[in-house]
UniProtKB/TrEMBL annotation:
GO biological process, one term: phosphorelay signal transduction system
Keyword vocabulary terms for this entry: Phosphoprotein
Domain Response regulatory positions: 3-119
Highest rank taxon of the organism: Bacteria
Stated name of the protein: Response regulator receiver protein
A matching Pfam family: Response_reg
Amino acid sequence: MCHALIVEDNSNFRQSLRETLLARFPFMSIEEAEEGGEALRKLNAFSPEIVFMDIQLPGMNGLELTRSIRAGHAGLVIIVLSSYDLPEYREAARQCGADYFFSKVYNTSQDITGLVDTILSGKPETADGMRITS
């Protein structure tokens, strides 16, 4: 079973992502958080393998939260989500320790399930379009 944590303040997007993931991965256990403090509590209690991290959150933003999580959880896969597919956002996500950058606007539900497929298959190098390389 795979555990995933969705950190997203937009409840409609969070629910849509959850439904998309469960439709393709019914074995996935999913927790949700609306902001950084809740995300950190759930991260420690739930121990997910994959975190979907919105870049803009109330309080601690998703980049700060990614840096904080990465410091204590090196093996965790972090996918930064953003409505803005800008090179500077991708670079900031990479510098904070994110593994992938996913544009909410330019990618489809098939793109996100394809990305998760590659992560779960152990072949993340096949997700070049979204993988953040150094």
